[in-house]
Structure formats: structure tokens, C-alpha cells
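go over this:
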Amino acid sequence: MKVLLVGSGGREHAIAWKLAQSPRISKLFCAPGNAGTAETAQNIPIPAEDIHSLLDFAKKEKIDFTIIGPEAPLVLGVVDLFTQNGLRIFGPTKAAAQLEGSKIFMKQMLVKASVPTAQYHTFTALAPALAHLDTAQFPLVVKADGLAAGKGVLVTADKKEAADFISASMSQKMFGESGEKIIIEQFLDGEEASYIVASDGQRFVPLASAQDHKRAFDGDNGPNTGGMGAYSPAPVVTPELEQKIKETIITPLIDTMRREGAEFRGFLYAGIMVVKGEPLVLEFNARLGDPETQPLLFRYQGDLLDLLEASAAGDVSKIKLEWKNDVAVCIVIASGGYPGEFKKGFPIEGLGSCSGNSFVFHAGTKLDGGRVVTAGGRVLGVTASAPTIKEATKLAYECAAKIKFTGMAYRKDIAHRAISRSSKPA
């Protein structure tokens, strides 16, 4: 069958890499793709947000199944558009994708579903938002309502920093329309985890647990990013905690979405903060996390296409997921300056030097006259697996050290929580 994968990041390269292993796929296209997806798929120069051109391409090529990787086309309604034209597609509808497209909508759904989350206040005007800081308890979290590529969140204990961020968001339009409304919420002090399920609108199949690192610098310092590394499984998600997440978060949320006329089919990503053993929701995403996808799919055993088709068809009841026992770790190599301003177009060396239980997934890359050059903030996701978290992390860093480009930067402490946990005596 012919399959179209939409997106161009590390998540999409990992999905393309896994889909290429399916014996049922005769031709795989990726729009727009990157230098990595070009190795296993035919890249098509259509931006992910150009949903009408994607539809035209799918019709022309007689695509049997389309898979949406990133959030932007989902929020724009690509699933609705394809479905209305009789084409099979994986991902949530525009109404359901509001879980990620609007943090205010997401919080409203959590309240309706009685899902535990941080206390919050919503603001649609600058003056009341700034006035709230006079009585707010610090540290706190400020979030732009809409999509901001993982950068529309500020965690701060400083009133002036909070005020500057709010002004930049609401008045100076730093995030465009996404920042015209904001949420100011309680800071939750705990350990984060990523819990992702594939939902068919009524039931769900849980993926393995994972944990990512949002802050740019070692020690979980610096600005928030789209993710600087991840690993799976996440030891913080014990069997007892996972059961709580299923019962108090995932099930009531999916049931509430269906009752609200926004049935959720696709990958539902719950960003969880574990506080004193209890899970609270930080955010919901309407797709796989990046970079969590890389270690997750590195461990996944089976045909990914089976899972995606079952979700889109509305029946995941017969899907049984199997995972390798090994631990997988992904280290994101970024452009110097990310998540702020950075330069592009630097040639990348050493891409072919990793093998065996390590693999380099491309994110912000492109082909330039036969060379692979940098083309984004997060450039590569070096992923490795081994029997233990220490071994997997060591292997990933050994691979990362072989790669070179001007200004490259990456955290040196990925998986530090899991390593610390594994070092403690039982």
C-alpha cells in the first residue's frame, strides 16, 4: 500500500524508519521530510501546514493511508479535510486537536473530566494578567494559549521576568495569535513523565513510558525547548502510578472528549508531573512527543502500521504492543543558540560513524548538493539502546561525540534521574 507521512522533524524520521520495516508498505512518501527521511521515503516538497496541497497530492498519487506527525496540520483540520474527501488518515480531528491547540480548552476539558491538574487563571487582556502577579504565589508558570513550538512556556520565580514574558506574549505578539491569551498556573514541584496512548475514541492502548528533558542546559536549567533528550522506560512510572494515570487521567479524559463531541482518535500524549506519588497533568498533546518518539520506536516490536490503522478505524481492541527489554536513550544535538536565534546551513560530519545499537535520527537537516546541512534548532537525535540505562546513555554519548558541525550543542546529563535512581541501593 501507498503511505504518506506528514512532517519533517526527528519524530517523523523515527516514524518513517519504523514504517519502512512494514512488509505491507510498497511506497512511502514524506512531506516535506528531511535528509534522514530521504533514506527510507520519497520526500515531497509540501509544507506540513499546506493541508490542501497535501490533499491534492494524496488524491493524485492514490495514497491508501496518511499519517500526521506534527501538531500544526492537526489543529488546522487536516484529518477533517481528508475524511470529508473519503481518504483514510491517522490523527485527531480539528475539534479533538484543540487539546493541544488551546491550553485554555485543554484545562476546561480537565475540569469537566475531574482530571487532577495545577490550579490556574486565564487572561485575555494584558492589564489583568500583570495585576495578577501582585498577589500570585511564586514560582509560577506562564503559558501562551496556542501553539508555540514548545517555547510558549515560562517557569519563573521572578516577578519581572514573568511580567516581561506576559508583555512580550500579549502585547508584542512574540508568539503571534498563540500568545493573545495566556494561562498563569501553580508551579508543581515533582518529577515529569511522558505517558502516551493510542486511542480509537473509546478505548486506548498505552505505549511504554518515557521521560524527556525540556530545559536547554545541564541540571535542568535555562529556557524551555521542544525537548533536549529522552529515554524509555521511565522508572518514575511504576506499575502503581501507571494504573493511577489510566484511571484518573486517560480514561476520564477520553470519555469526556467523546461526550463533548470531540472524539479523540490518534496519539494522546499526557505530560505528567508526579507530586508525592500522585500524577497531575501539565499538558496534553495530540501527537507523539519529540524526542520521546525516538527511544519509544527504537524499543517497539511489531508493525507500527497495524497500530495506526486500528486507531484510525476506531478499534484498537485487538492490538497488543510488545517492547524490547532494553532501555533506549535519545540525545538531541541542537544548533548553537537554540531555543533562541541560531544559524543554519552548516555541513554535518560523522553521520555514518554510528552503528549497531545506535542510530542517528534527523530533525533539522536538509540535503544541499549531496551534503547534509543543518536546517533547524534541533538538528539530530542520537539514539541508542542497551540492557541498562547507564550502558544506553554511554553508547548514545559515544555516538554523539563522533558528530561535528559548527556551533553544535547538547546536554551532557540526559537520563540523569534514571541513572541516579538505578545507582541507589535497593
User: Anything to note?
Assistant: The first strand starts at residue 2 and ends at 7. Residues 239-259 form the longest helix (21 residues).
